[in-house]
Design a protein that fits this description.
The chain is α/β, with parallel strands linked by helices. It folds into two domains: about 130 residues, Rossmann fold; about 120 residues, Rossmann fold. The protein contains eleven helices and ten strands. The strands form two sheets. It has a five-stranded parallel beta sheet, with helices on both faces. Strands 3-7-6-4-5 form a five-stranded mixed beta sheet. Strand 1, helix 1 and strand 2 form a beta-alpha-beta unit. Helix 3 packs parallel to helix 4, helix 5 runs parallel beside helix 6 and helix 8 crosses helix 9. The protein is elongated, with a radius of gyration of 19 Å. The protein starts with 14 loop residues before the first strand and ends in a 12-residue tail after the last helix.
Length: about 270
């Protein structure tokens, strides 16, 4: 997930909270650190296996019967890769985001379709424009709570979509004392949010009093309009929104904010 283009170390010394379940070697954390950010890892969810892995494992065993595999998250890629390292050579792979495509590439999987605008709607539109997926069988491993946008769009194209639960997301507990210290010290300058649920889980994990303090002292960086609206409804006044609703777009928006000297505090940021 390249986000350079003249912004090398644009986030030097800026404390950015990552609320998604983004391990240190996952794309969001790496992209922020590559720009010099001090990443505070506050995951508000944790992944868990599906309650019944049977449908997932059965579909993986029968991958040769599918024309496509569609992925919307690195976690879904991992759930499949743990059970089957190599995909059938004729199986085509479509992914929604660059981070998901990068994760697929780590396993040596060829990515056939990756839309420039990283949304499920854009993926469906690109397949439609190319005349692809019509009448095809599509394997779609996803989070238990993933939106139905992709499968509904593929179905409208005439594809047969087999959606299976690849993983679940459960609320995670945070070290409130450590979070409080970071907030009081002004170290949590930006809090990145990738969904309304990440906001709600953060609020639950911090508690109302500490969440209010975080809102008052940090800029809330939302990946898109739905998340930004949820942030504003929660009472947080300082909100920035990525124009490109992707992890890369989110990092770019945070870097743009940091580049505005009216939001910086000079040498204090790198002390």
């Amino acid at each position: 997930m390249a986000v350079t283009g003249g912004r090398d170390l644009a986030l030097r010394g800026v404390g950015v909270v990552v609320t998604r379940d983004d391990a240190p070697d996952f794309p969001l954390t790496r992209a922020l650190e590559a720009l010099g950010a001090r990443v505070l890892y506050w995951p508000t969810i944790r992944p868990a296996p599906p309650l019944d892995a049977g449908p997932l494992e059965d579909s993986i065993e029968r991958l040769a019967e599918f024309d496509w595999a569609a992925f919307t998250s690195p976690r879904a890629v991992e759930a499949v890769a743990r059970r089957r390292r190599e995909l059938p050579p004729e199986l085509r792979v479509a992914v929604v985001g660059w981070s998901t495509g990068e994760w697929a590439g780590r396993h040596g999987w060829r990515v056939d379709v990756l839309p420039e605008r990283q949304t499920a709607e854009s993926l469906v539109a690109e397949l439609d424009a190319a005349g692809l997926a019509r009448g095809d069988r599509v394997f779609f491993p996803a989070s238990e709570i993933a939106r139905p946008t992709l499968e509904a769009g593929l179905a409208r194209l005439g594809a047969e979509v087999v959606r299976v639960t690849a993983y679940r997301t459960l609320p995670a507990e945070l070290d409130r004392a450590a979070c409080r210290r970071a907030i009081e010290a002004g170290q949590a300058q930006v809090i990145s949010l990738t969904s309304p649920s990440s906001l709600e889980n953060l609020r639950r994990a911090l508690g109302e009093e500490l969440f209010g303090r975080a809102c008052g002292g940090a800029v809330m960086a939302a990946i898109g309009p739905t998340t930004a609206a949820a942030v504003r409804e929660s009472g947080c006044a300082q909100v920035i929104e990525a124009s490109d609703h992707s992890l890369s777009g989110l990092v770019r928006r945070i870097a743009e904010w940091a580049g505005d000297t009216s939001h910086r505090r000079g040498d204090e940021l790198s002390s």
